[in-house]
Amino acid sequence: MAVVRGDVRTTPHADAFVAAVLALSRRSTGVRPAQLNQSVPAAAPGARIFGAAAQMQIPLSWWDLMTWWHVAAMSWPAGGGNRAHRGPIFLPWHRMFLRRLEEAMQDAVEDEDFALPYWDWSADGELAPASQRQAPVWQLLGPTQGQVTQGPLGDLRVRLFENPADLRLYVGPPRPIWRDAGAAAAGLPDRTDTASTLVDGVYDQPSWDEDADSFRNKLEGFEDPREGGPRRTGPWMHNRVHVWIGGEMAPGSSPNDPAFWLNHCNVDRIWEAWLRRRGRSYRPQAGEGFAGHRADDPMLSVVWPTMTPAEVLDPTESGLDWYRYDTLPT
User: Fold this and answer.
1) Which residue, 182, 172, 187, is CA-closest to 49?
2) Which fold, 3-325?
3) Does the N-terminal peptide bond of residue 329 adopt cis geometry, omega within 30 degrees of 0?
4) Nearest alpha carbon to residue 325 among 3, 85, 19
5) How does pLDDT run across 99-137, given as a tens digit for each residue?
6) pTM, to two decimals
7) Distances in Å between the alpha carbon of 327 and those of 108, 219, 262, 298, 320?
8) What is the distance between the alpha carbons of residues 48 and 69, in angstroms, rounded to a whole number?
9) What stretches of 119-248 adopt beta strand conformation (E)?
10) Angle, alpha carbons 155-161-165 (nearest 5°)
11) Distance separating alpha carbons of residues 274 and 280, to the nearest angstrom
12) How many whole angstroms separate alpha carbon 266 and alpha carbon 121?
């Protein structure tokens, strides 16, 4: 049965989301970092974990494993990007990724009706920059600057971190997440940015990367959605949310921060609005574009079976029967 994903400010599942985050961060996978290193794909060396010998023998939590999965996908080159970003695969891979977390959370809170909330950051982007750091979402997620040791997520602890200095993934003792909102970007995308992104009728096209003139590239945030207007400094859309929050959200280990999932749920919601307008189509098809991004290419998965982009185009009752959104942007 398709669950209904709602705005984090109004959905009845907001408290359950917090409870599920904490539950998964405390639930052991039984898998040690040293064991994961034995299964790192040869094509994704950046997924190898480094750390003190003792830490390498302590099993990761399910929350940590989701972070490792993201790093592994980002570490596997494909075309001009990788198996999660900088190309057409960006939206279908994250759709699969989100759904697997949603299923894990349903199990954690013992509620098959639980649905991931989304954070409509374009609404907060209408606020003055200083007010964006005080928006209602942060009452749930905790402070936007410094370590998150207070509020509903104050007890969240993570163990993985991708060091931007050497791009290695490290494991250490449990620690709080941290943020630095507003330090690297003045403000969030706004409603005009979202509406402008949805105008583009081309899902993706050559060069199939961060230079492509396409809906995907605008939503991912490498191309300004306001084409033809005054030149603006990027990044935009999804990328801008990561950069604006900063801290834990900056490197490839960004799924450490629960804000990651609320951001990507909204990105998926914008894609769903585009699919409703334009038809459930995807490019590149078989035989075009880069391997790892084509409609029939298996997407990188861990624990769960893999899927292809073509298989995740309709998550609603008429397709996979996974979920639908309470409202879609226009």
Assistant:
1) 172
2) di-copper center containing domain from catechol oxidase (1.10.1280)
3) no
4) 3
5) 999 999 999 999 999 999 999 999 999 999 999 999 999
6) 0.97
7) 26, 18, 15, 30, 19
8) 11
9) 145-147, 158-163, 168-175, 178-180
10) 140
11) 9
12) 8
Q: Which two tokens stand for residue 315?
A: 């998550």
Q: Which of 222, 230, 226, 234 is nearest to 195 (CA)?
A: 226
The type of residue at 109 is V
Residue 299: pLDDT band by 50, 70, 90 thresholds? very high
Tokens 């974990």 belong to residue: 49
> If pLDDT is split at 50, 70 and 90, which confidence band does 41 have?
confident
Total length of the chain:
330
Alpha helices, DSSP H, located in the chain: 14-26, 33-38, 53-56, 62-74, 90-109, 121-124, 129-132, 137-141, 191-199, 215-220, 237-245, 258-278
Residue 151: count other Cβ atoms within 10 Å of its Cβ. 15
Q: What is the pLDDT of residue 1?
A: 82
Residue written as token pair 């620690």 = 175
